[in-house]
């Protein structure tokens, strides 16, 4: 499926690190990127021929210095931004090695009740759904 400009969506792997208490990690988009300063779940673009989970693992090492040990596919969302049509593949990981570090100069924060703003538009509708998993 392509958007009204005829562009095919860009596949993006997105990871939700979830602590046993339900806290999740959000990162702030760095300066110079579209929507800089907005908060989102970390991740990045899937390279040609790359498996989505492999892309997620690579992005977490590159951006945060975290090695994802296991992750479950959660949901997929398509969103058309002014700058890109993205297909977001969300994974939840409860097992990783390492503490997140700001390797690309981005801020990040563990959140129970999400209090950071502004949130990336594609992230907002997922929070209520995610809360049902975090706090059943």
UniProtKB/TrEMBL annotation:
GO BP terms in the entry: DNA repair; DNA replication
UniProt enzyme class: hydrolase
Molecular function terms, GO-annotated: 8-oxo-7,8-dihydrodeoxyguanosine triphosphate pyrophosphatase activity; 8-oxo-7,8-dihydroguanosine triphosphate pyrophosphatase activity; 8-oxo-dGDP phosphatase activity; 8-oxo-GDP phosphatase activity; metal ion binding
Cofactor list: Mg(2+)
Substrates-to-products reaction catalysed: 8-oxo-dGTP + H2O = 8-oxo-dGMP + diphosphate + H(+); 8-oxo-GTP + H2O = 8-oxo-GMP + diphosphate + H(+)
EC identifiers of the protein: 3.6.1.55
Keyword Magnesium: yes
Domain called Nudix hydrolase: residue spans: 8-134
Keywords linked to the UniProt accession: DNA damage, DNA repair, DNA replication, Hydrolase, Magnesium, Metal-binding, Mutator protein
A Pfam cross-reference name: NUDIX
Family (UniProt): Belongs to the Nudix hydrolase family.
Protein name: 8-oxo-dGTP diphosphatase
Organism per entry: Massilia violaceinigra
